[in-house]
Amino acid sequence: MRAMRLIGAGSLVYLLVAALVLSASASGRAVARNNDDGQAIFRYDTFGDEQLWTDVLRMHEVVPTISPATALGVGLKVDVDALPPAVVSALRAGAVDLNDPNVTLDLLRLNAVVGVKGTFNPSGQLTRVGVTCALCHSSVDNSFAPGIGKRLDGWPNRDLNVGVIAALSPALDEATKTAFRSWGPGKYDARHHAFDGVNIIPLNSPTLPVLIPPIYGLNGVGFETYTADGPISYWNSYVGVTQMGGHGSFSDSRIGLSITQKPDLVTPKLPALLAYQLSLRAPTTDGTFRANAAARGKELFEGQARCSTCHQGANFTDVLSGPDPTVPLLHSATEVGVEPVYAQRSATGGYRTTPLRALTSHAPYFHDGSAADLPAVVDHYDTQFGLNLTPAQKRDLVEYLKSL
Question: Domain-by-domain residue ranges, the chain?
Answer without folding.
Answer: 50-279, 291-403
